[in-house]
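Take a protein:
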Amino acid sequence: MQTNHSYDMHDSPQNYWEAKYAAMKTPPSGVPSAVLQDFAGTRDPRLALDLGCARGDDAIWLALQGWRVVGVDISLAALDTARASSEVAGVADRTYFICCDLSDEFPDRVYDLVSALFLHSPVNFDRLNVLRRASESVARGGLFLVASHGSRPPWSWAAEAAVFPSAEEELAELNLLPDDWRRLFVGPLSREAKGPEGQSATVIDNIIALERL
C-alpha cells in the first residue's frame, strides 16, 4: 500500500497503475514476497496464478522453483518489465503474463496455487468479488494465499487513521464454505518492510492460507 506519485481517487484503475509503473526508473528488486516463500516454497510446483503480479518478482521466483505461472496485472508497463525480467531469469517458457482488469474479466482455468498478495488499490477496485472469484479457481489440494495490509507503514497512501480488517474478518467476508477448505494459517505476521525511497519499518500482514479439500 504505497505510492510515489499523486492520484485522484476517481481516476480509472488503468490510468492510475499505468502511470505508476511507467514512472518507475529503478529495476525490479527480484526479491519475492516473504509470505509466498513461506507458504508456497515447499509445495509441489504445478500451475500458479499470480494476481496483481506487478513487475513479476513473485511470478519469476515461482517459475524458478519449477512452477508454470500465469501473471495478471492491469498495467502494460509493469507486464513489459515482467516479461523482460523473465527472459533474463531464463524462465520465459514457464511464465505467461496477461493484461486484464480483474473487475471485468478473470483467467478461466483451475490453478494449484492462486496468490493475491497486497491486492489493494487507492482507486476504485472491487477487491472482495475478485477474491471470491479467485477462490473458485483453486484446484482440489491447491493453495489459496491472500496477504493484506494489517498496519500502515509511513510511506502508505492510506489515511493515518485507517483501520485494517483482521485476517479472520476478511475470511468471513469471503463467505467460503468451511467444509471445502483446510485452514493452514489465518492471522497476522510481522516483517521488516522497505519503502519506495529506501525507508524501513516493521509492518503487520494479515494472511489467509487455505488448502482446498
About this structure: The mean pLDDT is 90. Residues 39 and 72 are 20 Å apart (CA to CA). Residues 13-212 form a domain with the Rossmann fold fold (CATH 3.40.50.150).
